[in-house]
Write a structure and sequence with these properties.
7 strands, 143 residues, 16% helix, 3 helices, alpha/beta
Length: 143
């Protein structure tokens, strides 16, 4: 989409980027922080979530393979997408997300990537287990 950024001689003022390929098979570090890639399926498209210490961040999943679930198990904090109550071809529904959260049993989980079709936050939060909340802009999690 932004091919001009990657040309051999980009025009002056074009963004400069340095690409680093990430493999789901290998942890990597940024400064002194280790990250573990977690491959999830966004419909038929593989995408990555990440684990940083006891925090897992997965925002665009429909399915998660058992081998990747193993990377999530034991985390204290989990951010997971839940698009709406109804099934969707490429995103977790509320029930599917809650099933994963129940299996992982984190200390705290937040739902993100939520559609307006989910309903009002106050009404939805009444349906959630005590350790699950809806994420919001400016949410901060201390590790």
């Amino acid at each position: 989409r932004f091919a001009y950024i990657f040309e051999a001689n980009p025009y002056p003022g074009a963004p400069r980027v340095q690409l680093h390929e990430i493999s789901k098979e290998e942890d990597f570090t940024i400064e002194n922080t280790m990250l573990t890639p977690i491959e999830v399926m966004h419909g038929k498209l593989p995408v990555l979530g990440f684990r940083v210490e006891d925090f897992c961040y997965i925002t665009d999943a429909k399915t998660i393979a058992d081998t990747e679930m193993d990377k999530i198990r034991g985390c204290r904090y989990l951010v997971l997408n839940a698009l709406r109550e109804q099934e969707h071809h490429s995103h977790l529904s509320l029930a599917q997300a809650l099933d994963i959260i129940k299996e992982i049993n984190p200390e705290k989980a937040w739902l993100t990537h939520i559609s307006h079709r989910m309903g009002l936050t106050g009404a939805v939060e009444k349906l959630l287990p005590p350790n699950v909340s809806i994420a919001y802009d400016t949410l901060t999690v201390e590790l």
